[in-house]
Amino acid sequence: MDATLANSVYYAFSTFSQTLAGAIGFLAAVVLYRIQGLDAEINVYGESVVTYWPNVSPGDLNVDAAHRFWRTRQFAELIALVKQTPNATEDNPQRKEDYGRLVSVLGIRKQLLGAFYVALVLTTLALAMSGLVLIRVHAIRATTAAAVLVVGYSGFVACLVAYGVVAVTIFRSHSPAS
């Protein structure tokens, strides 16, 4: 491959790598910040659900289990316990509203982390591919250079789309209360 084509491939892939590394770093900071906000909401709504648990004897298994699930952040188990407990939310409108918000915020958190993990995996793959191309840039044939650039650009665009999905998830996750 001639020097001009090798330089083009080299600079394209080094630019992809630097851009993706910077973008995923910034995105991670934003996601962590938003997760902290969601965790604060989860704590408020979870505490509300546990605090207003149906008035039964203190030694009751459900009360003990509810407090244990809340303390250990096992919110899926807490939600399952609320669902199986008769009148767990019906006798108190505030608890019912907080329970609904808890379920909603937990869903948002799960969706945000899922989208971020996809973006992180795509970025890792794109950076690994870029590294391999950069190491072997002079061994790439001129006839395959265009294909290598297309694959690299496609990986770059896939990462940017994944970042966009994460950003949209973050923006849609802001409730009026947060």
What does it look like?
The protein has helices at residues 3-51, 61-71, 75-84, 93-135, 142-172. By secondary structure, the chain is mainly α. The protein has a domain at 3-51 and 104-172. Helix 2 packs antiparallel against helix 3 (75-84). The model has no long low-confidence stretch (mean pLDDT 86).
Total of helices: 5
In terms of quaternary structure, the protein is: single chain
Secondary-structure-derived class? mainly alpha
Q: Portion of residues in helices?
A: over 70%
Beginning-to-end CA distance, first to last residue: 56 Å
General shape: rod-shaped
Percent strand: under 5%
What is the N-to-C order of secondary-structure elements (H for helix, E for strand)?
Answer: HHHHH
Name the poorly predicted regions.
none
User: Biggest sheet, open or closed, and with what strands and sense?
Assistant: none
| Count of β-strands | 0
Rg, Cα atoms, Å: 24 Å
Short descriptors:
81% helix, mainly alpha, 178 residues, 5 helices, rod-shaped
List the helices and strands and how they pair.
Blueprint: H1 3-51, H2 61-71, H3 75-84, H4 93-135, H5 142-172
Helix pairs in contact: 1-2, 1-4, 1-5, 2-3, 4-5
Short description:
The chain is an all-alpha fold.
